[in-house]
């Protein structure tokens, strides 16, 4: 993910005939080395580890590659979760500042929005 990539959620809540624009969902740029490389290498190593016997002299090396890959997966998910929670808070703040008291929503609404109907740009970015 590039540092300057912004993702915009296209679905917006309706407030008495007006559209309230939501803030951009900015995902943490996780594309920096060694994170991405270790993530991919960990996936390959997991496959190798399944095929390797414990007596294999490279077993410890393969196991270390798997653990580094798993660590990067956890880091990526942590950053993704923080970005989504930040975006939800920004959306709620944006709605509260809109001054339209007829719009009643909560964090679960935005969670469902991003999970059930993510914009195509968000979907593609997460699949990469």
Model description:
The protein has one domain (14-127). It has four helices and two strands; from the N terminus they run ββαααα. A two-stranded antiparallel sheet has the order 1-2. It is rod-shaped and about 65 Å long. The chain has helices spanning 35-51, 59-97, 107-116, 120-127; strands spanning 14-15, 18-19. Helix content is 58%, strand content 3%. The longest helix has 39 residues, at 59-97. α1 (35-51) crosses α2 (59-97). Mean pLDDT is 76; it is low at 1-12. It has 128 residues and is mainly alpha-helical. β1 (14-15) and β2 (18-19) form a beta hairpin.
Proportion in β-strands = under 5%
The overall pLDDT, averaged over residues, is: 76
The oligomeric status of these chains comes to single chain
Q: Biggest sheet, in brief?
A: 2 strands, antiparallel
Order of helices and strands: EEHHHH
State the domain count. Answer: 1
The parts where pLDDT drops under 50 for at least 5 residues are 1-12
Q: Any idea what the radius of gyration is?
A: 20 Å
According to DSSP, the number of beta strands is 2
Q: Please, how many helices?
A: 4
The level of helicity is 55-70%
Give the CA-based shape. Answer: rod-shaped
> What spatial order of strands do you see in the largest sheet?
1-2
- Overall structural class, as computed from helix and strand content, comes to mainly alpha
Distance between the termini: 8 Å
């Amino acid at each position: 993910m590039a540092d300057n990539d912004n993702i915009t959620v296209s679905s917006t809540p309706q407030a008495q005939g007006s559209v309230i624009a939501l803030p951009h969902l900015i995902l943490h740029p996780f594309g920096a080395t060694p994170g991405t490389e270790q993530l991919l290498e960990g996936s390959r190593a997991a496959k190798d580890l399944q095929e390797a016997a414990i007596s294999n002299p490279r077993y410890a090396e393969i196991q270390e590659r798997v653990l580094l890959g798993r660590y990067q997966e956890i880091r990526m998910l942590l950053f993704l979760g923080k970005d989504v929670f930040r975006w939800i808070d920004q959306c709620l703040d944006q709605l509260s500042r809109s001054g339209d008291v007829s719009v009643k929503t909560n964090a679960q609404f935005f969670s469902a929005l991003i999970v059930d109907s993510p914009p195509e740009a968000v979907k593609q970015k997460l699949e990469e």
